[in-house]
Amino acid sequence: MATKANTIELFSISTPQMRAFHLTWMAFFVCFFAWFACAPLMPIIKGEFGLTLAQVANINIAAVAITILVRLIVGPMCDRFGPRKAYTGLLLLGAIPVLGVAASQSYESFLFFRLGIGAVGASFVITQYHTSVMFGPKVVGTANAAAAGWGNAGGGAAQALMPLLVGALLMLGVREALGWRVALLVPGVLMVVMAGLYWKFTQDCPQGNYDDMRAAGIAIEGGKAGHAPAGGWESFKAASANHRVWLLFVTYGACFGIEIFIHNIAAVYYVDHFKLSLKEAGMAAGSFGLLALFARALGGWVSDKLAMRGTINSRVTLLFVLMIGEGAGLLWFAKADGVVFAVIAMLVFGLFTHMACGATYALVPFIDSKALGGVAGIIGAGGNVGAVAAGFLMKGTGDIAQTLTILSGLVLLSALCAIAVRLTAAVDDRPVAVNNAVA
């Protein structure tokens, strides 16, 4: 009987674990690319629709607000229906507003489709769920962080590539008003293609798909033989009763929430504050997102190594230190008075931010393995709550630099929640294995 993998064979797709690993980060990359494809084009869109800073803030809030609800729903859905069905459905449904935003003709219609696009941000929860059920305790932190980090890089790729795509279309003679719309069709098409690949080549867990396992009477992690784990409402209730889930909800809001906020405002900030061109601002903003290629994985890897040499609370201490570094780096970025120092500061605090995200989800599999979907969903939603709160803060201050300064202080305070997560000896640093013995 297949079990969780305790090694990551990076250049292999011969096992269901590695197929899930590679396809889930690819699906996440495509979703994040689609989610943030609009952000680097906002200077163009802002001019076309005559948007105010308050309206830009509304669009940024809409881009992440709906994700809160969808993340809360999709985690328990993974427990109930399996990550394969959940991801395929999200990719197909999410492609609709991604394609629709290219047809918007006003601020209102753009805002509506931007709200819908936010749903694809829930892809993160499915990615973390799928790697959590496929990999064992020796490497689960690394697997979670690497898959999420490489997927997150889709946001950075969008920042860098979308302006170049628009530029290429303009060189071909396409008008700017049409060019950004044509460019935004690309991520929607990619999502449809990815849905087909995910459905065909992945399975829910090492033994197979949940439906087949139920029919055969095989136990599913955290559940009884022939039944799903605490799926749907039961999974959510079990997770929501755990105070550590809510502490990590706050810390994830302070790291991933900041990451999303920076993705949405970086290009506009560099154009307005430092007078960069659209392409220059896109490259600067894109460098922040591309840190995810290694930084989030580094956070998970360090968490795994510290836990092996110390205790599970070594993971907690790491998260605390990373949150302190993030807050200090964000303050430096807010106070930078030149574009060179701003980019350097952004990369420094971005390193801490991405690593903190990885360290957070290196803890997730150990909070409550019987309600993994609920835990992953609630903590994941915390990231979007943080981004929405940051959006409202920017709308209230009317100044991005001032907003960043206030956020740096809030991040430092949230580090206290990180250290408060400390786990007792009763919490085992070994998630429940997926096998017939689980009942």
From TrEMBL:
<feature type="transmembrane region" description="Helical">
    <location>
        <begin position="400"/>
        <end position="421"/>
    </location>
</feature>
<dbReference type="GO" id="GO:0042128">
    <property type="term" value="P:nitrate assimilation"/>
</dbReference>
<feature type="transmembrane region" description="Helical">
    <location>
        <begin position="245"/>
        <end position="271"/>
    </location>
</feature>
<dbReference type="InterPro" id="IPR044772">
    <property type="entry name" value="NO3_transporter"/>
</dbReference>
<feature type="transmembrane region" description="Helical">
    <location>
        <begin position="86"/>
        <end position="104"/>
    </location>
</feature>
<feature type="transmembrane region" description="Helical">
    <location>
        <begin position="283"/>
        <end position="303"/>
    </location>
</feature>
<feature type="transmembrane region" description="Helical">
    <location>
        <begin position="150"/>
        <end position="172"/>
    </location>
</feature>
<keyword id="KW-0812">Transmembrane</keyword>
<feature type="transmembrane region" description="Helical">
    <location>
        <begin position="178"/>
        <end position="199"/>
    </location>
</feature>
<feature type="transmembrane region" description="Helical">
    <location>
        <begin position="21"/>
        <end position="45"/>
    </location>
</feature>
<keyword id="KW-1133">Transmembrane helix</keyword>
<feature type="transmembrane region" description="Helical">
    <location>
        <begin position="51"/>
        <end position="74"/>
    </location>
</feature>
<comment type="similarity">
    <text>Belongs to the major facilitator superfamily. Nitrate/nitrite porter (TC 2.A.1.8) family.</text>
</comment>
<dbReference type="InterPro" id="IPR011701">
    <property type="entry name" value="MFS"/>
</dbReference>
<feature type="transmembrane region" description="Helical">
    <location>
        <begin position="110"/>
        <end position="129"/>
    </location>
</feature>
<keyword id="KW-0472">Membrane</keyword>
<keyword id="KW-0534">Nitrate assimilation</keyword>
<dbReference type="GO" id="GO:0016020">
    <property type="term" value="C:membrane"/>
</dbReference>
<dbReference type="InterPro" id="IPR020846">
    <property type="entry name" value="MFS_dom"/>
</dbReference>
<feature type="transmembrane region" description="Helical">
    <location>
        <begin position="371"/>
        <end position="394"/>
    </location>
</feature>
<feature type="transmembrane region" description="Helical">
    <location>
        <begin position="315"/>
        <end position="334"/>
    </location>
</feature>
<feature type="transmembrane region" description="Helical">
    <location>
        <begin position="340"/>
        <end position="364"/>
    </location>
</feature>
<dbReference type="Pfam" id="PF07690">
    <property type="entry name" value="MFS_1"/>
</dbReference>
<protein>
    <submittedName>
        <fullName>MFS transporter</fullName>
    </submittedName>
</protein>
<feature type="domain" description="Major facilitator superfamily (MFS) profile">
    <location>
        <begin position="20"/>
        <end position="426"/>
    </location>
</feature>
<dbReference type="GO" id="GO:0015112">
    <property type="term" value="F:nitrate transmembrane transporter activity"/>
</dbReference>
<dbReference type="InterPro" id="IPR036259">
    <property type="entry name" value="MFS_trans_sf"/>
</dbReference>
